[in-house]
Amino acid sequence: MAHNIIQRSCVINRDIRPFVNFLRKVTVRHGASPRACSFNVQLFRTKSDNSKDVNSLFQPIPFRKQENNADDINIGEELSGEVKKDDLLKLLNQFYRRPEVRRAATENGLDQKLFHQAYISFRQFCLESEMLPADLHIVFSDLLRGAGHVDNLFPYFMKHAKEIFPHLECMDDLRKISDLRLPANWYSEARGIQRKIIIHAGPTNSGKTHHALECFMMAKTGVYCGPLRLLANEVFKKTNDAGTPCDLVTGEERRCSNPDKSPADHVACTVEMCSVTTPYDVAVLDEIQMIKDPQRGWAWTRVLLGICAKEVHLCGEGSAIDLIKQLMLDTGDEVEVRRYKRLTKLNYLNKAVERFENVLAGDCIVCFNKNDIFYVSKQLEKLGIENAVIYGGLPPGTKLAQADKFNDPKHPCKVLVATDAIGMGLNLCIKRVIFYSLMKPNMNQEGEKEMDFISTSQALQIAGRAGRFGTAYETGEVTTFRAKDISLLKEIVSNDISPIEQAGLHPTADQIELFAYHLPHATLSNLIDIFTTLCQLDSECYFMCNMDDFKFLADLIEHVQLPLRVRYVFCCAPIPKKKPFVCTMFLKCARQFSRGEALTLDWICNQLGAPFSIPKTIADLVHLESVFDVLDMYLWLSYRFQDMFPDSELVRDVQKELDLVIQEGVANITRLLLSSESQIPASNIDSIDDVGAQTPKKEKFLVEEDKAYSTDSAEQNNKQSKASGIAKSIQNEKVKGQMSGKLAETLIREGLITSAELEDLYKEWKKKQAIERSIESTNNRRNPKNDPRKKR
Ligand SMILES: Nc1ncnc2c1ncn2[C@@H]1O[C@H](COP(=O)(O)OP(=O)(O)OP(=O)(O)O)[C@@H](O)[C@H]1O
Ligand SMILES: [Mg+2]
Fold first, then answer.
1. If you count DSSP H runs as helices and E runs as strands, how many of each does the chain have, helices first?
2. Could you tell which of 199, 204, 209, 426 is best to mutate to test the pocket of ligand 1, judged by most ligand atoms within 8 Å of the CB?
3. What Pfam families would the database entry show (predicted)?
4. Predicted structure pTM score
């Protein structure tokens, strides 16, 4: 029954997604398969905006009125006499109504909407120009004298249309530039050699990466590409410890192993940073299933197709094998598959933990949001169970310190509370993985956040952290916290992982630059929209990655004067978009850059309020995490614009100190939780930092910006209108007698308004009401007829 409701709902309206999720939850609780429900949501997704009409993305360029000099001669008028504007308007109206004209316009690329816009602009041009071009003037004059046909205006109309819609002249070029149908051909270096692709496929903890790394270390030259900085760091250390000099390259960090700083023959990097023009003997591309990631998948595709290495080792789930084989038909590379079995046992328990009192040494409780992390941690502390905490937003040093504490057999901390940040990378001594919940916020291909049951692949990845080979616990256990989740978990992990069907792609800076050359008036975000709508790809094997985060940043700095290349690079920076403070700093950096002023250590420290003190509350901790992200952004940009970000080394030192300060805060997390007991700002902690950034509303940043740039009138207006909008909503809500209603709660939670501001608004509203009432009663006294009481 509910099953059918879901299916119907899907077709009706995409905005009811939360309702569908709720229904799905209820359905699964009542015994339906989560897989069946996932399928229904898939139906939902296929009804997305792919059909978006490209013409709707083109904005007309307002035509510029020609300034005439007093002594300019109106040749048209000299030759054929004056044309009255009224007569001209009649002719234009006739022209607009002609079906033949519309047909011809369509043939020339103007759909109904563009035709209408072009006509409005053409009419304005004809009526407002003091002097029309001579030939057009003569055509009008002839028409008025009954000579010729109104259709004769069409070439002049089309000329005007092409001026305000420059894409009409270059659609073929735009289509060629955005043709992504044969991505294998983009990498001439890789196509110039015969490569051998070795797929290491198997479950977690089966030695896939280990075997690939053996080949990497034995090779004369090699590159390792991992999904996380921590993983790249681990390989960097492992390789150097094994006596093979290896460099580290991540977005924010470069480390050389050779004392003379010359590049080593081996390099460990994050996938996005891998060079596809440097030749290597061996390349390792880890966690290959990430090729399907809606946001980052393109980076795996790029390395897979483009890496110039004789041997390419891919490690990950077997679900990627068929797709890889398919893609390699285009590259002509040889493919070999090596399958692995799990090295240790993993038992799924029949009993849930249910009570915090039942938590044991070696347990790792996995949560999917920070609220749960803090709650669980606090409950354990109340019982005197010391615990380490790891979530995605923590600095790497802090994560490692927490992991070390948990792994150290001599340390009393024997329990870990973590998000699925531990799903990839860290080597942890976990005996039992306990799923605190099975629902997780996910980013879909359209960049929307949706609550969903964890996928089979995610569940297996996380569960597989228990009983890691070579640790104290060689038999792992997996269970849930709540009894009702046990059967659901079993069902999820018993499903087959569906084969990966498509690999991600995204436009390159060169392609966007070419687009900008053809469409010089379009904004960067608009260029991306046009590109993604126009582009052609082989949808059997590829999909276009979601670019919403990029577009969000592009919109944020649209009004800042920057060359396109610089703007593009800025928008590629790793910014957690859900953190208003980081986004505000991003905007400030772009402004400083645009003014040509270097972003020095002093400048950035001033902005961030360094030096930093140890956090006293969770809110302090969350703020320091944002500060850490800003320093990451600085370092990332410093590798692209060294002149403008000259103090990267000093900033790195500041960041290391901050990592220690945060470490100390996290070490005392119970104290922080207790001192924050009264009010934890939910907007800050209810995040989904481990699944990608959620794009917040842009207005949020403008409010923060206002504080710093109160002279900026546009933003000031924005703030005022937003404040009045909020006030109105609150007033409406209060009118309904819901002072502590949902809207107020949401506004506070979203950080759009504080409780004190809400209180002020309430007082203001009461005052206003009192004034209105007194005016009304005065009026009624003056004019008793208006008094509704009297009427009654
Ligand atoms: N043959 C081996 N000899 C020694 N240690 C090994 C061997 N195989 C694996 N290991 C160790 O076992 C642990 C798990 O191996 P590895 O990281 O390669 O697994 P994986 O299959 O890549 O797991 P995941 O899917 O979680 O990435 C690592 O610490 C690794 O060093
Ligand atoms: Mg691995």
1. 34, 18
2. 209
3. DEXQc_Suv3 (PF22527), Helicase_C (PF00271), SUV3_C (PF12513), Suv3_C_1 (PF18147), Suv3_N (PF18114)
4. 0.75
